[in-house]
Amino acid sequence: MEKITELPSLYNHLEKMSVMELVSNINKEDQKVAVAIQRVLPQIAKVVEMIELKLREGGRMFYLGAGSGGRLSVLDKVELPNTYGIEHGIFNCLLAGGEERLLEVLEAMEDSEEDAVRQLDLFEVSGSDFVLGISASGTTPYVLAGMKRCRELGIPCGCLVNNLDSPIAANCDYPIELILGPEFVTGSTRMKCGTAQKMIFDMISTSVLIRLGKVEDNKMVNVRLINNKVVDRSVRMLMEEAGLTDYEEAKQLILKYQNVRKALDYLKTIK
């Protein structure tokens, strides 16, 4: 396989560029990301459909990754319970070196095949779940070992990689092969590849949770009341959805029922 992610940058002598040249050229490269993602939307849709199916059946979703991609998956996972009111443990991350050591940047653990197998076994991942492997190169030993373990155990799995014909893609059921070309800084896959990973994680988790009824119209009706800003947003959502005109009345309902969805359900019972 050709490692496109390791090809030389299209730009030379970066150290001689002005600040405006640097930010303009990075922006030029970033603009390629959304166009490239558009080409793999059918593959992303298949992953979304499989995750939705598994969650409807009571299963779980697992990101499995290392390096920048693995850390970005943790960011996606931690925001979902508050944003959509889902229980912890529905979306999960298996990170090389362990999620609890996220800030230690244990890049050497990318090479640990045993750690991937250990973590899959520790979380008792099974055929009821779905695993998405994340590796820009498509060769990360930790992720590859995880995909092979999923195959052995009959666990449905997909991957997000940035090279064609990689061993990781060959060992999963639903590959997403997103080709972005060389990075601005040669080999620095925290740049375009990282941007694409974040966009696709957002796309997958948001689509799945909309499909599972966690959004009504275009509103986060299950958002948790984590701060005053969210309380105010929820009150205004309730007023709009239920046709209420008294802010304090709506706020009392929100505080009592703890989210817009439950407050709306209550209002339906008294009509």
Automatic annotation (TrEMBL):
Coiled-coil portions: none
MF annotations from Gene Ontology: carbohydrate derivative binding; carbon-oxygen lyase activity; ether hydrolase activity
Start and end residues of each SIS domain: 51-214
Any one Gene Ontology BP term: amino sugar catabolic process
Name of one Pfam family that matches: GKRP_SIS_N
CDD domains attached to this UniProt entry: SIS_Etherase
InterPro entries: Etherase_MurQ, MURQ/GCKR, SIS_dom, SIS_dom_sf
PROSITE patterns: SIS (PS51464)
Recorded superkingdom: Bacteria
Keywords: Carbohydrate metabolism, Lyase
Protein's UniProt name: N-acetylmuramic acid 6-phosphate etherase
Native source species: Parabacteroides chinchillae
